[in-house]
Amino acid sequence: MGKINLTVLTPDRVLISGLEADSLVLPAYGGELGVLPGHAPLVAQLKEGILKYKSGGKEEFLSVFWGFAYIEKDKAVILTEMAEMLKEISEERARQEYQRAKDAINMKGADLDLDSAQASLKKAVVRMKLAEIRKNKNI
Amino acid sequence: MASLRDIRKHIKSIKSIKQITYAMKMVAAARIKKAQSSMLSARPYAFEMEKAINMLRCEMAEDDFKNSSSYKFFETSNPSGDIGLVLVTSDKGLCGAFNASIIKKSISFIKSAEGKKIHIITVGKKGRDFLRRIKNANLNFYYEIFGIFPKVNYTHSNLIAENLIKMYSEKKLSKVYFIYNEFKSMISQELKEEVFLPLNLRFESAKKHTGRISDFYFEPSKEKLLEGLIERYIKSQIYRMLLESQAAELSARMNAMENASKNAGELIDGLTLKMNKTRQAMITTELNEIVSGAGALEE
Range of B108's domain? Predict the structure, then answer.
C-alpha cells in the first residue's frame, strides 16, 4: 500500500514536512474526514479539532485551528492558522484558558468580544481533549 | 590650537559613542538571524496558499467566479475611486537610509496621485510621524500600528489585514499600494512599491479557466472556500511583508552602525595623533625653556 506525503504548515513555521503517513483523519468542516492513500483529489476547509495520522504503526495527534487541506496524488498539504504538536500542549494552561473564556461569556461584560471568547473556548476544548488522549495513551 | 584637555575630552566622548554604535550593531546582528529564519519558515505557507488559490480560480467557472463574494478582491468595482496605501517603516531611527528612502518614495507617490484621496495605513512610527506633518495633501489616516518590530507575529498581520479589507470595501478603493523595504541580503535592501489589491494583477500569470471539469472534491463549495482562502492569503502576504521589512530594517541598522563604529575609530585615531603631537610640542617648548634658562645661568 502507498503512503501519503503529509505536510503541515502554519504562517510562522513548518510543523511537518513531507512525512510519509499511512492514514490521516482531518477535522473537516462537515465532520471528521478520513484519508487513505489513493484518495480522490480534495480541497476541504478545516475547523478547530484534532488531526490524527498514522505513521510507522504509531498514531500521532496534532491540534489544528481552522485552515485548509489540499489533497492531490497522495500528497496532503494542510494550511492552518495555528497548530500544535501533542507534546506542546499544557493541560493546566488549557484548563485555565477554558475557565477564563467561560467566565468571560457568562459575565457578559460591556466589552465582551463574543467571537474571540468563543474561539478561545473552542481552542481550549481541543487542547483539553488532546491532553486527555495523551494521558490515556501515556505518551 | 585646541588644548590637550579639550582633545582628551573629545576623544572620550567619541569613544562612548563608538561603544553605543558597536553595541547596537551587535544587537542587530543577533536579531537578524532570527528575523531571517522566521522569514524562511513563513515562505512555504505563503507559497502553498498562492498555489491553492490559483488552482481554485482555475477550477471555478467564469460566471461563478464573477458572482462570488471574493470577486471584489480580484477586480475593483470602482476604477475611479480613491486609492489606498500601506506604508511600512521602522519605529526607531539609526538605520541609515532605511526610512528616508521610503519617505522619499511616498512623497513622489502622493504627488503622483493627482487629487485623488489617499487612505493610509501606516506601520511603524517613522512613516506615521512624517506623513502627519505633510500639509495640503488629500490624506486620510485610516489605521496605524507601531511598536511591533522586532517581534512581528501573525496576530499583527491579522490586525492589519482586517483593517485593510475593511478600508478596501468601505471606501470603495480602486487600488491599494504597498511601499516597504524588501530584504535582499545582509548588505542590501530593496525598496518596493507594488499594487496589492485588486489581486488580479498578481494572479495575471495564472492560467485562465480551462473549461475542463476536474475530479476535485470541494468541501464546502468552491465559493466558500475561495472566500476563506482569500482572506488568509491577504493575511499571509502582509505577514510576509512585515517580516521582510523587519529583516531589512535590522540589516540596514547593522550596516549603518558598523560604518558609524568604523568612522568613530578613525576619528579617535586622528585625534590621538593630534593629542600626541600637541603633547610633544609642549614638552619640546618646556625643554627649550629649561635649556636656555640653564645656558643663561652659566654665562
Answer: 22-206+214-256
